[in-house]
Inverse folding.
């Protein structure tokens, strides 16, 4: 990077390269010496809908499998998948959303493997925890059996085609939470598979996390030492959120809202007391929601301990033992506010950096590395050390920054 | 002040742009409405290639005299949007339209005969 560059180029909209598009991220990676330490991205994505033809082959039920494959052949007009209105590319301003289809990849491994490795190396990431994109809304599917069938197929496909061939890619597999027995079976079936570092519940859904039907799944996860995560998303069909009229509104609120509800139920019902060794990770809600909720629940708890007699400590003390992914990290102009948030959630040990790449509001590692109030040790913990501990990853860096 | 050659005037038509790389500097040079504008290609947000995204007019809400909302339309103000996250900049000033206190560094553009240079 010390070579003197001199060129004139024309921005192109008829070709695409992940490495070129992220050239400035690569400059950051070199300038901050990311090659010297581990960086783990605990929340990144691929577009599994581009592989539905492969994924749906893994559906067990022959009727659902036939219908799903027929849907792929027909195109998107009549779909078995539920979805959400959402112009995530900001009306075409986020150009990678459409241009990425132009990227050429070699045929010897899955396209998702190549494209994911390319952005990981460009940013300086060693390991990435990969999640689906449209399937984040599957918890709102009106047919629980469809969530179960599609999740199982996706998990099998992901393990075989992606995690099985690329050791730098890991995942917390999709738990079909609307079918509690299927969720339990999913942990049993996939818990020991290569690259499976935990299990993920998509947050937009209307099943209470404290329902007795989930206790054996939590117990199994605790016994296996596998974390459970709640991955946020929005729902424009939620009654309150349906009154919002802009994507910015439903996205800003929705990604906090469902996790605030699940967290409240999780803590108030004493699940941290019932499963003290179960690692719980809250994904893609940013940080301010936790800062606010800790104070809100503590305030009410002191007056209403009889509402939550399982608790032996303040709600915030349990929340400080859980884990949080960083993106989309709110960065106020006054950094003392962010510093207070970091203190509240005990960021040095509980915060895990995430990019959410390639989604529209992704973060780079520099969002953590450049914070002036963090010491180098804290930066490295948040960027990778904490995740290595939670997921059981080798802390030795393996990336190849271009 | 050092200068970098950008293009022949005949090659940089209205609506065109170039990215000039000079050592550690990257500069986006735009041609629009008979004028040239040049800004740092590093977005004030996360360092994305701010000058390499789409050109798009400012979106405005149409509010009637009785204060009712009547939809949206485009104004004449032209923006360019950083392709990483969509931060929008006013083409004529380099101001970030979400907070005009934030600006991309501006560079001068000079034309000598048919040659266009940016002063780096």
């Amino acid at each position: 990077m010390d070579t003197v560059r001199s060129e004139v180029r024309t921005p192109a909209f008829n070709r695409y390269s992940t490495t070129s598009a992220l050239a400035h991220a690569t400059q950051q990676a070199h300038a901050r010496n990311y090659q010297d330490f581990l960086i783990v991205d605990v929340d990144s994505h691929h577009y599994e809908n581009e592989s539905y033809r492969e994924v749906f082959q893994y559906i067990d039920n022959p009727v659902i499998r036939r219908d799903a494959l027929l849907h792929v052949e027909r195109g998107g007009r009549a779909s078995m998948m539920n979805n959400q209105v959402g112009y995530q590319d900001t009306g075409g301003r986020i150009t990678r959303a459409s241009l990425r289809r132009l990227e050429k990849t070699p045929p010897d491994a899955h396209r998702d493997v190549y494209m994911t490795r390319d952005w990981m190396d460009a940013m300086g990431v060693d390991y990435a925890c990969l999640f689906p994109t449209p399937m984040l809304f599957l918890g709102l599917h009106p047919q629980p059996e469809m969530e179960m069938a599609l999740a199982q197929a996706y998990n099998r496909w992901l393990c075989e085609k992606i995690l099985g061939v690329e050791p730098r890619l890991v995942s917390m597999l999709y738990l079909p939470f609307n079918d509690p027995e299927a969720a339990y079976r999913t942990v049993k079936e996939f818990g020991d598979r290569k690259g499976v570092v935990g299990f993920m519940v998509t947050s937009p859904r209307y099943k209470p996390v404290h329902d007795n039907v989930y206790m054996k799944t939590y117990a199994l996860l605790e016994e296996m030492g596998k974390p459970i995560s709640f991955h946020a998303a929005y729902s424009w069909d939620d009654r309150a959120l349906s009154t919002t009229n802009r994507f910015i509104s439903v996205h800003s609120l929705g990604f906090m809202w469902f996790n605030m509800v699940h967290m409240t139920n999780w803590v108030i019902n004493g699940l941290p007391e019932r499963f003290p060794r179960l690692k719980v990770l809250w994904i893609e809600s940013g940080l301010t929601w936790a800062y606010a909720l800790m104070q809100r629940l503590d305030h009410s708890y002191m007056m209403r301990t009889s509402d939550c007699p399982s608790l032996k400590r303040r709600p915030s003390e349990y929340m400080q033992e859980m884990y949080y992914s960083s993106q989309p990290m709110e960065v106020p102009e006054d950094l003392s506010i962010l510093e207070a948030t970091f203190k509240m959630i005990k960021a040095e040990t509980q915060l895990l950096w995430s990019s959410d790449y390639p989604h529209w509001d992704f973060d780079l590692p520099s969002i953590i590395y450049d914070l002036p109030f963090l010491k180098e040790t804290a930066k490295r913990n948040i960027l990778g050390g904490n995740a290595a501990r939670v997921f059981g990853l080798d802390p030795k860096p393996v990336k190849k920054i271009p | 002040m050092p200068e970098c050659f950008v293009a022949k005037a005949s090659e940089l038509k209205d609506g065109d742009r170039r990215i000039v790389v000079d050592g550690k500097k990257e500069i986006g040079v735009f041609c629009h409405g008979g004028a040239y504008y040049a800004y740092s290609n590093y977005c004030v947000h996360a360092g994305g290639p701010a000058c390499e995204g789409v050109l798009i007019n400012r979106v405005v809400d149409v509010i009637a005299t009785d204060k009712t909302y009547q939809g949206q339309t485009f104004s004449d103000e032209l923006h360019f949007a950083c392709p990483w996250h969509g931060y929008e900049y006013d083409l004529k000033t380099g101001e970030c339209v979400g907070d005009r206190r934030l600006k991309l560094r501006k560079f001068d553009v000079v034309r000598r005969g048919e040659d266009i240079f940016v002063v780096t």
